[in-house]
Amino acid sequence: MSALSELDQHRYISLSTFRRSGAEVATPVWFAASGGKLYVFTAGDSGKVKRLRHTTRARVAPADSRGRVRGPWQGATAHLVAEPQVIERAHAALRTKYGWQASLADLFSRLTGRLRRRAWIEIAVESPAT
């Protein structure tokens, strides 16, 4: 089983991004795999977004909704995406994975004006060393 398909069996990953000081900040997030990458959405003004503007260095691990890690950490690179085709593919993958929960999250985001302020993150997980 590939690293991505193994991660995709989980509902959450812990996404770690890094501050300028090198300090690691981990956050549990919904995610979906598509085209060999992982995709996450977050508020456009979140700390994750600010940290990724500084460095693409990241780590991911399977986690529960509270961020408790449930498997090994893997190195990754992550960056913000703005291309509409990539965002639509990522959004479709998240809707497929999370079903009605994703639809409900989209509805609330649309009603509160947060939908258009979302930032999308593309994550490339490094292959484990053999």
Order of helices and strands: HEEEEHEEHHE
Helix content: 25-40%
State the strand order across the main sheet. Answer: 2-1-5-6-7-4-3
> What would you call the shape?
globular
Structural class: alpha+beta
CATH superfamily: Electron Transport, Fmn-binding Protein, Chain A
Q: Low-confidence spans: pLDDT under 50, at least 5 residues?
A: none
By CATH reckoning, the class would read Mainly Beta
Determine the strand fraction and express it as a percent band: 35-45%
Number of helical segments?
4
- Summarize the main sheet: 7 strands, antiparallel
Q: Regarding quaternary structure, how should these chains be classified?
A: single chain
Could you tell me the radius of gyration in angstroms?
Answer: 14 Å
- CATH fold group: Pnp Oxidase, Chain A
Find the count of extended strands (DSSP E, 2+ residues). 7
Q: How many domains, in number, for the residues?
A: 1
Do you know the CATH architecture?
Answer: Roll
Overall pLDDT, averaged? Answer: 90
Distance between the termini: 14 Å
